Amino acid sequence: MPSKNARATRVGYRCTECGHELAKWVGKCPKCQEWNSVAEAAPARPALSQVTAGAPATPARPIAEVDLDSARAVATGIDELDRVLGGGIVPGAVALLAGEPGVGKSTLLLEVAHRWAAGGSGGPSLYVTGEESAGQVRLRAERTGAVHSELYLGAESELASVLGHIDAVRPGLLIIDSVQTVQAGESEGTPGGVTQVRAVTTALVALAKERGLPVILVGHVTKDGAVAGPRALEHIVDVVLQFEGDRHSSLRMLRGVKNRFGPADEVGCFEQGEQGIVEVADPSGLFINRPETQVPGTAVTVMVEGKRPLLAEVQALVTPTNMTMPRRAVSGLDSARVSMMLAVLDKRGGIKTGDQEVFAATVGGMKVTEPAADLAVALAVASSTTDVPLRSNVIAVGEVGLAGEIRRVTGVGRRLAEAARLGYDHALVPPDCGPLPEGVQATVVEDLTSALKLVKPSKRRRGDRESTS
């Protein structure tokens, strides 16, 4: 039987793509299914029984004596991005911007580099691309008007060359597009692999902290929407941003997933057009449609993304079908919650949709997953079923429980203030929602039955009783 020391120094094998460790060599990694990615790993070093004290790099000081000027956020020049970052980017911070291909990450960051260079206060900006040539980036800059003498462009895929550009330019802002294409020569693995991404990110984070240089990294995503590469990548960086958008819609949403210097749940709105990415300071108008004549099957609610209230219109279409299994199609909403609303409407509200097809969607490509939209979804489905429209000046806010009760949600006053600003003067709200702003007439609904009276005419109810008897 081998001794402990022999087991500690035994040579192992590790996948250079996913980091999976194995006891022997195999041609195909059993975890990531990559061929020829398993290589011999260095033996683990024995643990030290005692660690000797060393001289600290900087002496510890009372917290009141720590300088704050070096940690104050600097505005990037794009208000929606600064909102998500918490006022701007902090010197020495490393931010990771992830998103699907074609969503506009490179276009947005090229505009960030241009605004930073045009500001003149933070020094030049350096944009390093590893996916495109310098000429391709210049063509995009010409199209979007992002050409400036203080914006430097480098097309490199080697980490050593990137560091050389930094020493030559001395930028105030560094953008790497993307971190999966940069390779550290002294590390094993292929570009984009776990080992390479970790090594490149660690080196850039150390550089940013040493020089107080803000760095923005572009990251790829997997088919599931998660950031590609090791999970440790999100822990290494200071800020993680998710850039979302449907390729069939011009709307783009920038969400803060992690932020060590500000709120982690803020959202910024952009619109992508032929001239590049444009900020949308008041996005509520993109998510609602106010026709002159109200149509059955629509209801308006107010969502809260971070600290920003946004009006969202929910539409539903309920139509008879001869199919054995009626279809249920959902777009922009949580399909599980829509199914739950259909069950509650059937059991508690008398709205039968078992033999009808139900289609539910939001307007403008907005994704609504907050439970506060339950009441609006239920009213939209009921309105389409009874063919009775809601009044155009009514909004609905509230979570619907399985017993049909309307539950309290957070920030009702802030939601109604935004609704009043856009001309909605009547709101359906849950009980005990606190003080409400002026200009909005609030109707408290305790259960779903009370709310359905707005879309369930009495003539229809009498007919139902007669047919039942």
UniProtKB/TrEMBL annotation:
RecA family profile domain residues: 70-221
Stretches for region Lon-protease-like: 357-469
Residues annotated for ATP binding in this entry: 99-106
InterPro entries: AAA+_ATPase (IPR003593), DNA_repair_RadA (IPR004504), P-loop_NTPase (IPR027417), RecA_ATP-bd (IPR020588), Ribosomal_Su5_D2-typ_SF (IPR020568), Ribsml_uS5_D2-typ_fold_subgr (IPR014721), Rubredoxin_2 (IPR041166)
Pfam families: AAA_25, ChlI, Zn_ribbon_LapB
Domain of life: Bacteria
GO CC term (a single one): cytosol
One GO BP: recombinational repair
Entry note about domains: The middle region has homology to RecA with ATPase motifs including the RadA KNRFG motif, while the C-terminus is homologous to Lon protease.
The family this protein is said to belong to: Belongs to the RecA family. RadA subfamily.
Record protein name field: DNA repair protein RadA
